Amino acid sequence: MKLNSKKSIIAFFVLLFVFLQTSFVFATSEKPELTSKAAILIDSKTEKILYAKNETEKMYPASTTKIMTAILTLENGKMNDIVTVSFDTVMSIPEGYSSAYLQVGEQLTVEQLLELLLVHSANDAANALAEYVGGSVPSFISMMNTKAHELGLLNTHFTNAFGMHDENHYTTTQDLAILMKYCIKNKTFRSLAGKASCAIPATNKYDVRKYPSTNELIIPDSPNYYSYLTCGKTGYTKQAGECLVSCAYQDNLELICVVLGGPTVMIDGISPRFSETKALYEYGYHNYSIQPLWDIQDSIIQIEVPNASKDTKILDLLPNTTVHALLENSVNKDSLDFSVNLKDDIKAPIAQGEILGRVSYSVDGISYESDLIASHFVEESKLLFYLIGMGIVALILILLLIYFVFFHKKDENLCE
Question: For this structure, is 66 an active site residue?
Answer without folding.
Answer: yes
